[in-house]
Specification:
By secondary structure, this protein is mainly α. Helix content is about 80%, strand content about 0%. Helix 2 (about 25-35) runs antiparallel to helix 3.
Length: about 210
């Protein structure tokens, strides 16, 4: 099976499943493949919107049901959760429309909002608008990246595998850096909790 056949067979499923999670890299690649003619751009954008909306609604419901348990199990999430709640009170509209574009808070934001009992209907409306903005902008960015690659190379067909591999490598590197950063923060948070548990209580002045 060639790369083109593989993308044509599994690309749409990958777009939907990937955008249910933090799938910016998947959507960028899908936009690129749409420019190459392997995928249909309107279908890619529609599936990305559906995946984004469904994934964030699911995270919101998860936050309402199990949000406190999740935060207790992941102390490293607490600083970001506090940041999200602070921004809701000061920049509610911008946060709800733009959180998908902020690394590290895409899935956590709806969980925190669910835990905070943010109005469900209001979240759904913002989720519709924000999901549309995100899917169209990121999908078109990948599409025009393919267009730019076509202008750089005289014969894109001979180089597209290199471009695809390069995009995959960049996405994998960004994912690994983020995972290592989150793991380091989790270890630091656990160490602080352990230290606090070992320290004797401070006597309060009378």
């Amino acid at each position: 099976m060639s790369a083109q056949e593989f993308v044509e067979q599994y690309g749409y499923l990958a777009v939907f499943l990937g955008t249910c999670l933090e799938g910016q890299g998947v959507l960028l690649l899908a936009g690129f493949f749409a420019h190459r003619g392997y995928l249909n751009l309107p279908v890619v954008l529609l599936l990305a919107f559906a995946g984004s909306f469904i994934g964030d609604q699911a995270c919101y419901v998860l936050g309402r049901l199990k949000g406190r348990l999740l935060l207790d199990r992941h102390p490293a999430w607490q600083p970001r959760a506090s940041w999200i709640l602070a921004r809701v009170s000061t920049h509610e509209r911008w946060l709800l429309l733009a959180f998908r574009f902020v690394p590290g808070v895409r899935m956590l934001t709806p969980i925190v909002l669910g835990l905070a009992k943010y109005p469900q209907r209001r979240f759904a409306v913002y989720n519709l608008i924000g999901g549309a903005l995100w899917s169209v902008s990121i999908g078109l960015l990948g599409y025009f990246a393919g267009h730019a690659a076509g202008r750089v190379f005289d014969k894109v067909k001979e180089h597209e595998i290199k471009v695809i591999c390069g995009l995959l490598a960049i996405g994998l590197f960004a994912w690994l850096v983020r995972r290592l950063w989150l793991a380091r923060r989790a270890r630091a948070a656990d160490a602080r909790l352990l230290l606090d548990a070992r320290l004797p209580p401070v006597d309060q002045p009378e």
